[in-house]
Amino acid sequence: MCGLVGYVGWRDAAEVLLAGLRRLEYRGYDSAGVALADEESEIGLRVLKKAGNIDDGLEKLLKNGSSNGSHLGIGHTRWATHGEPNDRNAHPHTDCPDELALVHNGIIENHQSLRKWLSGLGHEFTSDVDTEVICHLMEHYLQDEGDLSQALARSCEHLEGAYAVAVVQSPLGANEREIVAARKDSLLVVGLGDDENFLASDVPAILPYTRRVMYLENGDFVRLTADDVTVFRSDGRRVDRPVTEVQWDPVQAQRDGYPHFMLKEIEEQPAAWESALRGRLSGGEVDLQGLQFPALEDIEHIYFVACGTSYHAGMAAAPLWERLLQIPASAEIGSEFRYRQPLLGEDTLVVFISQSGETADTLASLDLAIEENCPTICVTNVVGSSMARRADNVIYTQAGPEISVASTKTYTTQLLILFLLACHLGRQLPHGQQHSETCDRLLAAMPSLSDLERQLLNDTTEIGSAAERIADWEDSFFIGRGLDYVSALEGQLKLKEISYIHAEAYPAGELKHGTMALIEEGVPVVAISTQPQLRDKMASNVEEVRARGAWVVAVTDQPEGEVARRSDAVIPVPDSEPELSPLFVGTALQVLAYRAAVLRDCPIDKPRNLAKSVTVE
Ligand code: G6P
Question: At 91, phi and psi to the nearest 5?
């Protein structure tokens, strides 16, 4: 969940690194730093690092220090996992005589035993972070090997855990201007330029300079000079990795004049849904371009495994899959799944859902499923991500880059893809035939969803008014039944993460078993009602909380219905197929959370304590 970037070539390295780090800041932002090889002076390596975000920290340092003249360097933006977020623990880290500098994403699990061993050999540690052991290992092996690549390969033999690591050496001691890097379970890409090369943990960092990228595999090492890139394995054997042309436009990753990425990404949803369906659904027929799904007749159980918002997408999908495929289906939290020793095997289909494709707990669950010979499908937004490359089948959400920490368009495109898959697979199964009408009905509705979404986003007056009411409170409740309960879960998560208002989601019928005790005069309750068979029950639940003084806003596709009539305010959502309602309710609740967060003056795109991509378990 940190970001790293490296540059070797003819440009001002400080500028390239700073620009790259800014584009990666969404991955972690409690400190940032660079190491620049200074060829002109006696200094050798200039390491500048500072706690705080880039604007307040690193950029000021770079302005004060002379950064010009360097054409080789590495940089890092950090989200603390070991040691406090302070200057000392910021990356890059160096060995004692500042002979080399190193940046690292991931966690070294055996850092304590390595630290003990290296201290015994006389190495002095200056920070609290796990990363520093790699510096001293490098120093140790550099003395033996004299070669940076070999020293890194030897060092990595000691490491347990996950890493993308990049190293530069002081030009005073080095023979060549080079960056050496390695990856295991953390993304690392090389960007290819003319007489210059780039390294980054994420493609957006290098997009302004090149679209030609090479994704490194687990266990790869790479050596970059200005005019050469060599990928090799730990035994020194050279390997070729394909070069891909990245389609994302650098401006796609900018805010386009919106005050926040989150709002931009919410408003991009109609286009994102069209993109997700493009080439996949036409005239009611689904074409998934050669994906080879397992024989569903042999499948006894389907698990959806994911974390955070993606988990809610799995929860929303599971009932539809179960119904249409007539196979029991359930959603599981990535960080829980592995430890409850689930029954897995060839008859268990596991669907992994992840915006980033890198979330550590989801990735580890995927590895477990692969070990147990389960057929696997991955739904992700990031091409070439670790999950995309490990799962048997991958289907991309095609939502475009999402920068804001809170997932919006990637959530609703996950929903759309999962609903599309359910209909597609349901229609193929002999015993799914009984639901073919439902599949046809849902597939027929999908092409017009984006226009309905545009209508929703065109008039958000009621959402704004409800947000004003909610923004004044420190507590709130979200209630719903069936699929609306899943939307309630996602709605409360959005509100919590960006507005810092405490929010709880409850199945509406469950409130009276304890949580009702918290309902007091004026407390806001968001009551969701889109499921026809549950409307009456929801109306009674609204009555229950109102009788205890709650202020209720109904989110419903029936603004004249009973639930709306019994509520204090109404947020209308388009009247579409009930199975697809989480798409619209999800959007309305994203806007609600966003508006409340604006009113409370919160740092919306980068909420405190949170990161976009959580690559530690
Ligand atoms: C983080 C993000 C969430 C996201 C979750 C799972 O916590 O802040 O928005 O839902 O990770 O991420 P993934 O990339 O696997 O969907």
Answer: -90, 160
